[in-house]
From TrEMBL:
CDD domains documented for this protein: TMR_SDR_a (cd05269)
The organism of origin for this protein: Phytoactinopolyspora halophila
NmrA-like domain residues: 13-227
InterPro entries: NAD(P)-bd_dom_sf, NmrA-like, NmrA-type_oxidoreductase
Cited Pfam families: NmrA (PF05368)
Protein name: SDR family NAD(P)-dependent oxidoreductase
Length: 287
């Protein structure tokens, strides 16, 4: 194992997973703009962004040997959670084990707000399991538990301009991906200060879906409304997509977690890490 650097100098080896995606790509671009060298660990190097000071390594989370080779000589890693699949936790465990074997000192993991073994949102349980495996790996870690992405709010609207889901009048403190990316860069570039810390990343407001619909209406000029489905109604309205049962459970439980109050609450972690107020949904949509 090569000797690692322990300071926050510009030549500290950093790796970013998911650099071809929306969140990982944001982080990669911010690191490049800051003059930080990085390795982008991606499935398809041809799709990786061309950034100054960046190299690419090909690996999937479930390929232990490829991950170990990609992370050799790397000090800090941003682990953006893998795509939603039935075996995602297994893929995560493989990646974490390979990172530890490669000598990674600090793993920054993109988790989910309220991650717990009994979380209503089924995929938040996966994040909890991954966190526990990282804790047992021997590496330093930081968990960034993101609330629902504010950027995805427009995608919740159906073709009939209705948001449907069994969220009742529950609230979610939706957070902008740009804010998450900035927070991640702060942690990656000042890792020792954040070792062992879990941050709950939220927007500045906790909103009901009716309030989200109102903001979307203002931004689009369309009359967008929210229909609070029952749970059986939610399963029926999504059955036509032909998704597997675990995926339907994940979709529906996103809303029931909101109804149960598990995505409510605003923290100061985004301002603390970024140095500016968290971005409101209205601000994001009117940019």
């Amino acid at each position: 194992m090569t000797q690692r650097q322990s300071d926050d100098s510009a030549d500290t080896p950093i790796a970013v997973t998911g650099a071809t995606g929306r969140l990982g790509g944001r982080v990669a671009r911010l690191l490049a703009a800051a003059g930080m060298p990085q390795t982008m660990v991606v499935r398809d190097p041809a799709r990786a962004p061309r950034l100054p000071g960046a190299t690419t390594a090909q690996a999937t989370f479930g390929d232990h040997s490829a991950v170990r080779a990609a992370l050799d000589g790397i000090d800090r890693v941003l682990m953006v959670s893998a795509s939603e699949t039935l075996d995602r936790v297994e893929q995560h465990r493989t990646f974490v084990d390979a990172a530890a074997e490669a000598g990674v000192r600090h793993l920054v993991y993109i988790s989910f707000f309220g991650a717990a073994p009994d979380a209503t949102f089924t995929l938040a349980r996966d994040h909890w399991a991954t966190e526990q495996h990282i804790r047992s790996s021997g590496m330093n870690f930081t968990f960034l538990r993101d609330n629902l992405y504010a950027d995805f709010a427009p995608a919740l609207v159906g073709d009939d301009d209705v948001i449907r889901g069994p969220a009742g009048d529950g609230r979610a403190s939706v957070v902008a991906q740009d804010d998450i990316a900035e927070a991640a860069v702060t942690v990656l570039t000042h890792a020792p200060e954040h070792a062992g810390v879990t941050y709950d990343l939220t927007g500045p407001q906790s909103l009901t879906f009716e309030e989200i619909a109102t903001i979307l209406s203002e931004a689009t000029g369309r009359a967008i409304t929210y229909h609070p489905e029952s749970v059986p109604e939610a399963y029926r309205s999504r059955a036509s997509y032909g998704a597997p049962d675990w995926q339907l459970d994940a979709w529906v439980s996103t809303y029931t977690a909101v109804a149960n109050g598990e995505l409510d609450g605003v923290t100061e972690d985004v301002p603390r890490l970024t140095g500016h107020p968290a971005t409101a949904l209205r601000t994001l949509l009117f940019r």
